[in-house]
Amino acid sequence: MKEQLTIVTRKGQITVPAEIRRALGIEIGDKVAISLDEDGSPRASLRPVRSVTDMTFGSITPRRQPKKTNEHREQFMKTAKERDDRSKRRT
Known about the structure:
This protein is of the alpha+beta class. Helices cover about 35% and strands about 15% of the residues. It has three helices and two strands; from the N terminus they run H-E-E-H-H. It has a two-stranded antiparallel sheet. The model has no long low-confidence stretch (mean pLDDT about 85).
């Protein structure tokens, strides 16, 4: 096992070295779990924690495909124009 060193700050924080982050697939904002070995030895392990939502996103195909972005934009612009026209008639 390759060992990497890091420093604990006065707030108890550590920096996970880039090589380890890459190997574990840890990115900015990810949660990690740190645990001690159960046999009482002075070793800790680090693993990424993924939410169920993140792990399952996209695994089910929707019954209906979502509208295309351009269709959404066109509908938004049409509705906005109608509201604008109505508000101009009131004044």
